[in-house]
């Protein structure tokens, strides 16, 4: 290696500024959503001082937690350049399974575990179909969405679980908390932090980004592609199952229609949160912020006197806005990188 | 065969390996032995089976018959990870990076240094990357995302990746195609050091002088079969070419004299901010004008702007005296301009479409009748051009992605020549193409010029520029720095202009 020892002096001051700018641009995505969220909440509070009361904050968090949980799982799948549309159906069926067990006098902890296990099992099915079948995830999970919903309807029929069927400890868990922070939100926060840490600090987590960024390169780099995709779907399914159990605890009311159409809200939350649909970028924190933003709009509009029929239109606008911002940022970053590269090169040759 | 080491065990070897894809027999009973401390070249035309052989060694393809031997013992690689764990590092021809990940992560994906509880040690990843870049003499930032890197920089990252694990076997498929002379020299320095450290090296390059500079042994493949495996010493370039092609190459640069006619393409004071500045030149009928320069000098960008893919900010472009509109490729095509782009896989072809469809992409209007496609006309147009350019294919309905690089390039040429252009711009027409096809492409360009076409040829291959061009334009950092006549053009004069200085040939 003696012949290669050539110093590269000119770059030392250049390098940190490159990363600085890029880092800012990439992190700004999460920050931007957080800023919009804070702005919106502050404005609402100024307009209606009862909005951020103790109960108001608690409701805000309670409303968000289930969506955040499912969005975290969805983000893990979307990062691998796939999607899981069956989360709504999985949430519904696992919520009913947990309810059915509790109705029969089962242990609440066991009921939650059953919901998670059921979700994970559907995750295995989705994961196997997507990774072995080499079929687009959009189509596969659209299929399982209907299949699971169908199973749900056949099994449940016209039955429903109501709060009266559940042990009081379970519903209390669904409503109470430490101060203004509900237990459900705490649980969700733990899951969120764990998922983020896993994605950032474990090889298997990094692999998910790699294979979402370029499946072919991942294969050549020896990333166990099928295993990782399967894993992502299991995580997503399990979190949808957990969300089902929490849904039961929070609302106490489950029937065969529970979770219908939920998948689209989840996907919107993930995309608004900056997880690129083309895979390889974004974070679960972003997804969680996206979910928080979408659910907050639901609470904000009524309290400033806007009809809630506007909610869906506004969600849609946010979605388009998010994609537009992503595109603009991507172009800007590309331009920036090109300019940097040109500078480095001229420093090189000049 | 000729080497006297019956007692040495090869680190990695193939014995009697065959591999077929459908009806195509990519490898037929091929054996190859890689020894520690030896650099082995793999020669052969495109489509001779070199890439398949590499993929068999790298665990991407499993041979249909025959064995892979690791330290003399048969092994089965179930995937690239197995080969990697056995110490086989591969640099593929086309860089395979993760655009969203940082350069450092690209290098260490799946093999990151870890801290307690199996957590990735991001700081160590960054540090190790910086160390690798220092060893290669590259000034890339480890935390920069791979997206937006030039092909040369991507290739350097691939090389750093291969060096990052103490490979016992280093396989390099055309690693130098996009590199400057200086970068190549540095890479070779590192490879020699690795070889002296006991690594086995398998090297593929279409630049034969590199084979002779780096390797001790050479194995030649032709049509999937082993032709020879011998010592490089005592071999000449002509010998090697003859083994690869199976015949004598009449001439690699068959430049015909052509009558030079009127100005066909005129570019005046063309500027695209931050990319190139004040570029003026003319190309006449029957003339091949070479556009030389280092990678990143702005040559391809000029071509893209002239064709209308990118807008230009100032200046004008005329074809046969008629001005072109900025940023309108369809108008440029209608005016008689054709551009064979630099990256045939991404820009020149739709890889998942058939040969026929690809050729006809430029002729959707001419082969349609009353708005409906005329399948017969399409087919005859494709057959006509595929045959004229001697594309080697099984069926016209085959996906273009299954062809070898040289044949893919011929399809791109066919696609554009079928439009009957007046001006043809070719960007790196023979990059990554074997010697035989290269000569064919040169003969074709020469013939086209003789028939009155105006040709602008961008190339980083200096002998190609010197051999084919009537006139050489040289760019340096976005500006045209020299215009040299064929008789005055030498490696020294072109390189001096390309580096923007006097006489520092790479």
TrEMBL record, chain A:
CDD domains: TM_PBP1_transp_AraH_like. The chain crosses the membrane at residues 31-48, 60-79, 109-132, 180-199, 229-249, 261-280, 287-311, 317-337. It comes from the Bacteria. It is found in: Cell membrane. The keyword Transmembrane helix applies. It is a multi-pass membrane protein. Coiled coil: none annotated. The keyword Calcium does not apply. Keywords: Cell inner membrane, Cell membrane, Membrane, Transmembrane, Transmembrane helix, Transport. The complex is composed of two ATP-binding proteins (LsrA), two transmembrane proteins (LsrC and LsrD) and a solute-binding protein (LsrB). Part of the ABC transporter complex LsrABCD involved in autoinducer 2 (AI-2) import. Probably responsible for the translocation of the substrate across the membrane. This is Autoinducer 2 import system permease protein LsrC. It comes from Actinacidiphila acidipaludis.
UniProtKB/TrEMBL annotation, chain B:
Residues 12-248, 258-502 form the ABC transporter domain. One of its GO terms (molecular function) is ATP binding. Keywords: ATP-binding, Cell membrane, Membrane, Nucleotide-binding, Repeat, Sugar transport, Translocase, Transport. PROSITE patterns: ABC_TRANSPORTER_1 (PS00211), ABC_TRANSPORTER_2 (PS50893). InterPro entries: AAA+_ATPase, ABC_carbohydrate_import_ATPase, ABC_transporter-like_ATP-bd, ABC_transporter-like_CS, P-loop_NTPase. Transmembrane segments: none annotated. Pfam families: ABC_tran. This is Sugar ABC transporter ATP-binding protein.
């Amino acid at each position: 290696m003696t012949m290669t020892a050539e110093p590269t002096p000119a770059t030392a001051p250049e390098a940190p500024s490159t990363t600085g700018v890029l880092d800012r641009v990439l992190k700004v995505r999460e920050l931007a959503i957080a800023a919009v969220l804070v702005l919106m909440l502050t404005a609402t509070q100024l307009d209606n001082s009862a909005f951020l009361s103790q109960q108001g904050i608690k409701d805000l968090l309670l409303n968000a937690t289930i969506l955040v949980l499912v969005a975290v799982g969805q983000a893990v799948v979307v990062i691998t350049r796939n999607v899981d549309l069956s989360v709504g159906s999985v949430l519904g069926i696992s919520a009913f399974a947990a309810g059915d067990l509790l109705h029969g006098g089962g242990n609440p902890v066991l009921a939650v575990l059953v919901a998670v296990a059921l979700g994970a099992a559907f995750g295995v099915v989705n994961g196997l179909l997507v990774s072995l079948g080499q079929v687009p995830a959009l189509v596969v999970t659209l299929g399982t969405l209907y299949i699971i919903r169908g199973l749900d309807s056949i099994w449940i029929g016209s039955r429903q679980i109501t709060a009266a069927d559940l042990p009081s400890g379970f519903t209390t868990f669904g409503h109470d908390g430490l101060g203004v922070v509900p237990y459900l939100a705490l649980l969700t926060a733990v899951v969120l932090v764990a998922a983020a840490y896993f994605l950032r600090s474990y090889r298997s987590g990094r692999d998910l980004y790699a294979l979402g960024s370029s499946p072919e390169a991942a294969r050549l780099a020896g990333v166990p592609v099928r295993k990782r995709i399967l894993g992502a779907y299991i995580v997503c399914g399990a979190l949808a199952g957990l969300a089902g159990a929490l849904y039961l605890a929070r609302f106490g009311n489950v029937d065969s229609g529970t979770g219908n159409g939920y998948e689209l809200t989840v996907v919107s939350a993930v995309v608004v949160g900056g997880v690129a649909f083309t895979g390889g970028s974004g974070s679960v924190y972003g997804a969680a912020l996206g979910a928080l933003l979408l659910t907050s709009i639901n609470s904000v509009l009524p309290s400033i006197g806007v009809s809630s029929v506007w909610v869906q239109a506004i969600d849609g606008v946010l979605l388009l806005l998010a994609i537009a911002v992503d595109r603009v940022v991507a172009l800007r970053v590309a331009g920036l990188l090109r300019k940097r590269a040109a500078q480095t090169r001229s420093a090189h040759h000049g | 065969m000729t080497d006297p080491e019956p007692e040495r065990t090869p680190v990695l070897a193939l014995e009697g390996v065959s591999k077929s894809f459908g009806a195509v027999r990519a490898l037929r009973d091929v054996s190859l032995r890689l020894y520690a401390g030896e650099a082995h070249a793999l020669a052969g035309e495109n489509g001779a089976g070199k890439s398949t052989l590499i993929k068999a060694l790298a665990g991407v393809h499993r041979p249909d018959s025959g064995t892979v031997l690791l330290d003399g013992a048969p092994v089965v690689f179930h995937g690239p990870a197995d080969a990697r764990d056995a110490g086989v590092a591969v640099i593929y021809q086309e860089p395979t990076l993760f655009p969203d990940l940082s350069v450092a992560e690209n290098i260490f994906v799946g093999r990151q240094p870890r801290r307690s509880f199996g957590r990735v040690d991001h700081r160590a990843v960054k540090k190790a990357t910086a160390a690798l870049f220092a060893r290669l003499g590259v000034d890339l930032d480890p935390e920069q995302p791979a997206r937006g890197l030039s092909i040369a920089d991507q290739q350097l990252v691939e090389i750093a990746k291969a060096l990052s694990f103490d490979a016992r076997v280093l396989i390099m498929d055309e690693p130098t195609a996009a590199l400057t002379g200086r970068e190549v020299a540095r890479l070779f320095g590192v490879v020699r050091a690795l070889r002296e450290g006991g690594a086995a090296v398998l090297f593929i390059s279409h630049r034969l002088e590199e084979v002779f500079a780096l390797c001790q042994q050479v194995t030649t493949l032709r049509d999937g079969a082993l032709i020879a495996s011998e010592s490089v010493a005592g071999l000449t370039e002509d010998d090697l070419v003859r083994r690869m092609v199976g015949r004598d190459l009449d001439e690699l640069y068959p430049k015909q004299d052509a009558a030079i006619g009127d100005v066909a393409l005129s570019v005046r004071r063309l500027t695209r901010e931050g990319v190139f500045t004040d570029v003026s030149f003319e190309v006449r009928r029957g003339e091949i004008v070479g556009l030389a320069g280092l990678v990143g000098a702005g040559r391809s960008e000029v071509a893209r702007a002239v064709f209308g893919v990118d807008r230009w900010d100032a200046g004008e472009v005329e074809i046969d005296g008629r001005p072109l509109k900025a940023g309108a490729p369809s108008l440029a095509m209608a005016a008689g301009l054709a551009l064979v782009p630099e990256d045939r896989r991404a820009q020149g072809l739709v890889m998942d479409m058939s040969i026929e469809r690809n050729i006809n992409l430029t002729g959707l209007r001419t082969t349609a009748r009353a708005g409906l496609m005329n399948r017969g006309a399409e087919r005859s147009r494709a057959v006509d051009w595929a045959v004229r350019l001697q594309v080697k294919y099984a069926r016209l309905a085959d996906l273009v992605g299954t062809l070898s690089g040289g044949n893919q390039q011929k399809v791109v040429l066919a696609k554009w020549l079928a439009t009957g252009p007046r001006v043809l711009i070719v960007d790196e027409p023979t990059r990554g193409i074997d010697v035989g096809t290269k000569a064919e492409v040169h003969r074709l360009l020469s013939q086209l010029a003789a028939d009155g076409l105006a040709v602008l040829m961008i190339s980083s291959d200096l002998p190609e520029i010197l051999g084919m061009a009537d006139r050489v334009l040289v760019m340096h950092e976005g500006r045209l720095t020299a215009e040299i006549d064929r008789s005055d053009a030498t490696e020294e004069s072109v390189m001096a202009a390309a580096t923007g200085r006097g006489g520092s040939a790479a």
